[in-house]
Protein 1
Amino acid sequence: MTIPDTDEGPLSSEDALRRAALFASGLLALRESPRFNDLVQDLSRTMDVPIAGVSVVDSGFCWLPVLHGVDLDSIPLSESLCAGVVETQIPMTETDLPANPKFADNRFVAGPLALRAYAAVPMCGVQGAKLGSVFIADQRVRPDFASRAIPQLERTTVRILEEASSPHHMRRVGRTTVEGLESLIRRATRNGDDALVTAIDRVMRDVLPLTGMRGN
């Protein structure tokens, strides 16, 4: 999975720090490793749902680097069911989506996919950055989501974040990670934002040993 070039377009300090955390998390390369697909498929089987996945939020989109049960690469954040979870960092369970006016008109609820139940937990990165979510969805009303979904999602999220930040995975994505962080540092330097340069450099120093690479 790739995200837009970090040298283009406006980027606030908050977004730059979140993007730095995203690079450092290892989450951008989940699609390249079968291990993450296995974790999501295990989640699907355990919760008996047709749809399960990982979302990563960036540049106004909800990107889907690992998704089981639906063929999608990304969703505009305005249409995503996970947007509120990522923003508030509060887990969500909806056992009957059409019954909630907030979601009844969503295209994934009212449209052909006809989702009826959804649950998600947030993923948090370094310095509390809001990265995305791990979620499940069903085309059946699921009263059991209220008690079962969050604990299982939280366990899977811990495993995904641990695997994504492990040295063997970070060495595979080292070049993308380092180049992305260096690009963010260059941008912050051009903008004269010394505090942001320092913050991203700190992220770089923390993640470099895992990548096996050297910064410029």
Note: The chain has a mean pLDDT of 88.
Protein 2
Amino acid sequence: MLPFLRQSFLYSLILILALSCKTYKLTDVKPASTSEKTVENLYFSSGEDYVYKCQMDIYKNHVSGILIIKKLNETTHRVALTSDFGNKLIDFEVSENDFKLNYVLPDLDKKIVINFLKNDFRQLLKRRYPVNESFENENARIYLSKIGNMSYYLFFSKENGLLKEIVYTKNNKEKINFTFDAKKPIFADSLNLQHKDFKINIKLFQITETE
């Protein structure tokens, strides 16, 4: 399993040089007034363990395991991925500004693999977003947050107020789309992470739930 995983990441790096992402634009929305200065992704804000069944599709290859996310403090989370048989694959700590690799299986100890996981989980676990503009459509209130050359579009359901999607762009190009299914603001029952410039998709499904 691990050799093809490594090869897939290397293959994807080559392909990215030949692929271009589409410029991201909101459609069917209208400007909305707001007093919000910041909005938050609270799905990983609890101090309890978040335990998910993880399914990762890399091109036509499929990898599954158990993913555990734990909040260590206000800025840092610890992330550990094991195989379905309980063998540790990778263990790291990540925040917006720091990254510490605690363990990685030798077959996964490649710069592209580490950078891929570091960036994806750094974006997923980002909590606070300054609000630059707000919009709305029939189903959602949408907040645009600009940080340097990165932009985030956060979609909050009008029905229950919960965060249901984050679109991450860089230089106006769509990079990653996060979609959430949740019943409460601090815990996502399932999560789908879809790359737009790699043929990589990660799905997380609840195993245990925080209170």
Note: The radius of gyration is 17 Å.
Protein 3
Amino acid sequence: MGEMDELRRRLEALEAQVHEVMEQQATTRHLAVSSDRDVAALQEQRRADIQLIRALRETQLGQGKTLEAHTRTLEAHTKTLTEHSKLLGALVTGQVAMMEQLQTITDHLGITPPERPQEG
């Protein structure tokens, strides 16, 4: 019976190895399925991130156009304001010159000039 005992021992060892290999295979399969799910989740997140980046790009392009339009408008308003400031300066200079001439005339004629209008 020595040979039978040897065969029985080898069979039990082989069965134990098969059992261990099956457990390893189950663990490997579980890891593969889990990895597949993780990759799918990452791909889904990547697609969402790309969609968000594209939406942000569109928003920024729109904001850039708006900013450009506002800049052009501001430049036009600044130019108009500068022109109006020059005109106002010329008007003030003209009024001062007229007041000086009026003073000269009234002094020459010896009359009292009219009162200046009150600011307010």
Note: DSSP finds one helix and no strands in the chain.
Protein 4
Amino acid sequence: MIGIMTNGLPFQNRFFAEQEFHYLYDEVLHIRHFHQYDLTKYDTLILSCRLDIRSLKRYQSQLLKFVNAGKRLIIFGEILDCWFPTIDWEDSEVNFSWWVRDGGDLPMKMQNNVHPLFKYVTLHDMKWHYHGSFLPPQGAQSLLDIPNGRSLFYVDNVSFNGELVVTTLDPMFHIGLGFIDQSKPFLHGMAKWLREEEKH
């Protein structure tokens, strides 16, 4: 079972109103009531982008317990104020205009191309902009790098008993606000990968 966390902000409510993404998750959890949920029934917990940092810090121990119980925790967007241990986040300037410049590009490269996610996601699907980058822990698999060698998307199967999936990409935000077309095929790819993983 897949749960997804929300703040209940307007863009998140609009995202959850999108029927085409209902297959991504089984239940929506509100972060203010996080302590009331039985997390043992979920195999995967998705933390959507722009969640309240104070609440994330408050529930850090429960989230660590979840991923250490052999579950999958997926974190979208920035990891601000060092709220999750093991995640090395570095802010960067956001390039919002590269696609309107002659010959413009946003350099990034797929890594570990045999990862099953790439059956459903292309480099184009992941290329819109980013707000920062990560330095994955030793042994973790980066799926998307920028030229300085830091990661925009990685999978950590070494730091915990479960799996931590981390990306700076923020598709729910852009789907909820109705702009950046790549965010939809990217999130559909994520959903298809997660549902395929459930079968194994």
Note: The helical segments are 10-16, 53-58, 60-68, 123-126, 171-177, 183-198.
